[in-house]
Design a protein that fits this description.
The complex is a heterodimer of chains A (533) and B (245).
Chain A lengths: L1 H16 L11 H31 L4 H33 L3 H6 L4 H16 L1 H18 L2 H31 L7 H27 L9 H8 L7 H14 L2 H38 L21 H15 L1 H16 L12 H24 L9 H4 L4 H31 L3 H29 L13 H24 L4 H26 L8
Helix pairs in contact in A: 1-5, 2-3, 2-6, 3-5, 3-6, 3-7, 3-8, 3-9, 3-10, 6-7, 7-10, 7-11, 8-13, 10-11, 12-16, 13-14, 14-16, 14-17, 14-18, 16-17, 16-19, 17-18, 17-19
Chain B lengths: L6 E10 L2 E11 L4 E5 L6 H9 L6 E6 L2 E2 L4 H6 L1 E4 L11 H11 L4 H14 L15 H13 L5 E5 L7 H16 L3 E5 L3 H7 L2 E6 L2 E6 L1 H5 L7 H12 L1
Parallel strand pairs in B: 3-8, 3-9, 6-7, 7-8
Antiparallel strand pairs in B: 1-2, 1-4, 4-5, 9-10
The chains are: A mainly alpha (533), B alpha/beta (245).
């Protein structure tokens, strides 16, 4: 049964990536190919970075043991990343995949069903292993050599490293979902992912810069590794390190022992999720499928007044309802605002900057980020209902302008609130605040227009994670545009208070750029098509 | 309603890559007429309806809605069109009232008028009791009813329906048929795609049979029966589609 399921999944993958000549490419084929290409690029980057770190370690007199510990650390970080970014997807596969009904009707045992769904989850949740861990091991091999036994054990190690966080995380999530309202199951997982990311970001931002400098532990990579890798022997990364070191030293028995520990831990994790699923997966699925209806606003309060209403007003009212009822998106938005506003504070330990300069940098980061975080979600948030833009007697340009105004209200409000908070906390004068807003306003205008365009051109109406409302190609392009904008505006903001002419030129360029991007967004919206069922 | 034909299609061609879904189709729906659009799976019915609704761009051909060319005057044409897709396009986190209120605004219907029309439609389609609930909690049939109400809200000259009876209970199916007949009696044209041949037989004034993207037959049931007076629409349909294969 499992072998048949594997074959059918391999066929689906082949049809997606390499459709037969003359056949219509399936939906998402281009995105899938781009994701593979992007994965290869990221894997190449990871390989180069780890190779460089291994060289730095060797130059400082590091041994094979320390190099293996470094790879073990990468493995542990990857496992945490898998829990944060991919667990949501894995649990969605178990609970809400489209073929679950078919599987439940089929004459196969529940344990085989679980096995098939875990296999389905594997490719969707193993990207980090493929683009970080495998290149890291390859870099280790290129530096020290693994031998045949090392390569032979790698698939087992990789599978075990996937099974440990997936099994433990899914078991914990299934237990958690028994006590939260079933209808919020997926949203809750998305929000947990966002909040964990936020916590990690804070630790990373405020701890790591303080570790730097001449007197910090980064000055001596071996000492740093020794302190960071303390206790790693009790973790999957430590077991991987033992296996890698033994393989490099040509000691197969020790390599096998390290791998066996990993495999045993992975097996136990899968057994745990199997036990949890056996104890209540069916009832959980049924509860989610039959979640009780939630009441919306009272009918009497919907319509008010007579005569034709403005479309923009209707859209703003609709957006307020949609966003207000999507508390995952709201939570994500709140996290984003805090995170991006604080971003320039990371530079604090490195640069002793004047307060107006810090304020400008903080708010410019926020403005640029809101383009990606708020505006890019405007069109995908509508899901398939965006097709009303092609059915209704309303020009695509007007629809886009209404969307842009909607996000401007949200983003503008957030920026003003953040400006007030920053001005108060940094004790800025009116003149300083005016100088800050002179840079922030054009940055926000352009960022929102770019965001609306990325959403219209690359939005995924079937999104399940609020952090991934764009298709992979769109996410890549949005990230590049975000980095370019942030870099350009931060340079402008850090140069100093702009003169009147410089401000006017920047504003004019931003408005012209925004108009061009909104025109492109309208063009993309006018061409959105629905696939024939 | 205007005197222009609700729908005129000339030489419609739509391809997906190398596959031709609709191949040079001519089609008319006259005022006050309910036309059944029949064909086996993959015949090109959904593609035709989506082209006529503006959701898909044709590769060639001309489509006129109530005399307005869809390609060059899309907004005027869309204002006179109501479309019920096979898969409803709804905002899951809006209630039926809120969704119809928004749809009314898109079609420039005054708030009070939109509310009155929505109330009538929801009552006729037996969705009034659930109109305060979010669409995400609706069954397939309830979603379909809301989609139908949204398509009829602005009293269009042409109503296109793609498999509208899927998921509807017998009461709602009857209510929909009555609504369509009333719209037709007021001069609107209706083009309904369906697999239910008995429905087409009883509801439609005329049927068009599509196969492999081409029109195989068109006419009243009596015209299609020809010499075989006892034949049902099912007999006629099977004969036509087997001949074409």
């Amino acid at each position: 049964m499992i072998a048949r399921a594997l074959r059918s999944r391999a066929r689906m993958l082949r049809h997606t990536l390499l459709p037969a000549r003359g056949r219509r490419a399936p939906r998402g084929a281009a995105s899938a190919r781009l994701a593979v290409a992007l994965g290869l690029v990221l894997g190449g980057v990871a390989f180069a970075v780890v190779r460089l770190l291994l060289k730095l370690l060797a130059d400082a007199g590091g041994s094979v043991h320390e190099a293996a510990l470094l790879i073990g650390l990468f493995a542990n970080f990857t496992l945490v990343g898998l829990l944060v970014f991919d667990l949501h997807e894995g649990v969605t596969v178990l609970l809400a995949d489209s073929d679950l009904d078919l599987l439940r009707r089929a004459p196969i045992r529940p344990v085989a069903q679980l096995g098939i769904k875990l296999l389905d989850a594997l490719p969707r949740t193993s990207l980090l292993l493929a683009v970080i861990l495998v290149p890291a091991v390859a870099a280790f091999q290129s530096a020290f050599g693994l031998g045949a036994i090392g390569w032979a054990l790698l698939p087992v190690q990789a599978l075990a490293l996937w099974a440990i966080p997936t099994g433990l995380g899914a078991a914990a999530a299934l237990a958690l979902l028994r006590v939260v309202p079933a209808r919020h199951a997926r949203e809750l997982l998305g929000l947990v992912s966002t909040l964990t990311l936020f916590a990690l970001w804070l630790v990373n931002s405020f701890l790591l810069p303080r570790l730097g400098g001449d007197l910090g532990p980064f000055a001596d990579p071996r000492r740093t590794l020794d302190s960071v890798a303390h206790g790693i022997g009790w973790t999957p990364g430590g077991w991987l390190a033992i296996a890698l070191e033994a393989a490099a030293a040509g000691v197969p028995a020790a390599a096998l022992a390290g791998t066996l520990r990993l495999a045993l831990a992975g097996g136990l994790a899968i057994a745990l999720v199997a036990w949890t699923a056996h104890a209540g997966l069916e009832s959980l699925r049924a509860r989610i499928a039959a979640s009780p209806p939630r009441r919306g606003r009272a009918a009497a309060r919907v319509a008010a007044g007579a005569g034709p209403r403005g479309v923009v007003r209707a859209m703003l009212a609709r957006d307020a309802r949609l966003v207000g009822r999507h508390w995952t998106v709201l939570g994500d938005l709140a996290t984003t605002v805090v995170l991006w506003t604080l971003l320039p504070l990371v530079l604090g330990p490195v640069f002793d900057a004047p307060r107006p300069l810090v304020a400008r940098a903080m708010l410019v980061s926020l403005a640029v980020a809101l383009g990606s975080e708020v505006a890019a979600r405007a069109v995908p948030l509508e899901r398939d209902a965006i097709l009303w833009a092609r059915l209704a007697p309303l020009a695509a340009g007007r629809w886009i302008v209404a969307r842009a105004l909607g996000v401007a209200v949200v983003a503008g409000g957030l920026v003003l609130a953040a400006t007030a908070a920053v001005a108060w906390s940094l004790q800025l004068g009116v003149r300083d605040v005016a100088g800050v807003l002179a840079v922030v306003a054009p940055a926000l205008t352009l960022a929102l227009a770019i965001g609306v365009w990325t959403g219209a051109a690359f939005g995924d109406p079937a999104w399940s994670n609020p952090r991934a409302m764009l298709r992979p190609a769109g996410r890549l392009i949005a990230t590049v545009l975000l980095v370019v904008q942030a870099g350009a505006w931060l340079v402008l903001a850090l140069v100093g208070p702009p003169g009147v002419w410089a401000t006017a030129v920047a504003a004019a360029l931003a408005i012209a750029g925004a108009a061009a991007m909104l025109a492109r967004a309208a063009h993309a919206l006018a061409r959105i098509e629905v696939a024939t069922a | 309603m205007s005197d222009a034909a609700p729908l005129e299609v000339r030489g419609l061609l739509r391809r997906y890559g190398a596959f031709t879904a609709v191949d040079g189709l001519d089609l008319d729906v006259r005022p006050g007429e309910i036309v059944g659009f029949l064909g086996p799976n993959g015949a090109g019915k959904t593609t035709t309806l989506r082209c006529c609704s503006g959701l898909l761009a044709p590769d060639a051909g001309e489509i006129r809605i109530a005399g307005r060319p869809l390609a060059t005057a899309p907004l005027e044409a869309r204002a006179r069109l109501g479309f019920v897709p096979d898969r409803p396009f709804l905002y899951d986190r809006l209630t039926a009232w809120e969704f119809l209120d928004f749809t009314g605004a898109l079609y420039r219907i005054g708030a009070a008028d939109a509310r009155q029309r929505a109330a009538v439609l929801l009552e006729r389609l037996e969705l009034g009791g659930a109109a305060d609930e979010l669409a995400e909690t609706y069954s397939l049939g309830m979603r379909q009813k809301l989609s139908i109400a949204a398509a009829l809200l602005h009293d269009p000259s042409l109503v296109l329906l793609d498999e509208p009876l899927g998921g509807l209970d017998p009461h709602s199916a009857r209510a929909l048929k009555d609504l369509l007949r009333e719209r037709a009696a007021r001069g609107a044209g209706v083009l309904v795609s369906t697999h239910l041949l008995d429905v087409a037989e009883r509801l439609c004034d005329r049927v068009v049979v599509l196969h492999h993207g081409r029109k195989r037959a068109e006419g009243t049931l009596a015209e299609l029966r020809g010499a075989s007076a006892d034949a049902t629409l099912e007999d006629v349909f099977l004969t036509l589609t087997r001949q074409a294969t």
